[in-house]
Specification:
Elements (H helix, E strand, L loop, with lengths): L2 H27 L7 H37 L5 H12 L3 H30 L4 H29 L5
Helix pairs in contact: 1-2, 1-5, 2-3, 4-5
């Protein structure tokens, strides 16, 4: 499995942990919040902040662990050779951009479809906080689909045309 696939897989794992943490917080620790959209919005903003900080830390740890892995695996390489190998892996080339574009397009489609579902749910008379959670679920599913497509394309390859 390539470095890029491992990076996407760790990102998917972190996203799933973040969603599980949100569900645990909402349903176990704070069950009294019901139909108050302001409270729901504040909780989601806090978890977005946690997600951003966690993603940055996770990315840094992934690069550090990859660098350590390369230096241990190829112990005969000098420090400059290890830096060269790591830098060449981390550079985004045309294939990485193509994979990112294709996966993002599909992920955005799934996320956008959740907005349509939320509007349809509101039109059918459900509570606004349910529509709010339909949109959140759509973003989460879109993120997972985007990651799964990225891993698939990194492992299979991209064909132009």
């Amino acid at each position: 499995m390539s470095y890029h696939s491992k990076r996407v897989l760790t990102s998917i794992f972190f996203s799933c942990c973040l969603v599980l943490g949100y569900a645990f917080y909402v349903f176990r620790l704070n069950p009294e919040i019901s139909h108050d959209l302001i409270a729901w919005s504040r909780i989601v903003l806090v978890f977005i902040g946690i997600g951003i900080i966690g993603s940055i830390i996770l990315h840094i740890l992934t690069v550090i662990s990859y660098t350590i892995k390369i230096s241990v695996k190829d112990s005969e390489l000098s420090e400059t050779d290890v830096d060269r190998v790591v830098n060449s892996t981390l550079v985004e080339d045309e294939m990485d951009k193509m994979i990112s574009l294709r996966a993002s397009r599909i992920g955005y489609f799934v996320s956008g479809f959740s907005g349509i579902l939320a509007i349809a749910a509101l039109a059918s008379g459900v509570a606004p906080f349910v529509a709010f959670h339909i949109i959140l679920a759509g973003f989460m599913i879109g993120n997972l689909v985007e990651g799964a497509i990225s891993i698939y394309l990194y492992e299979k390859g991209v064909q132009y045309g």
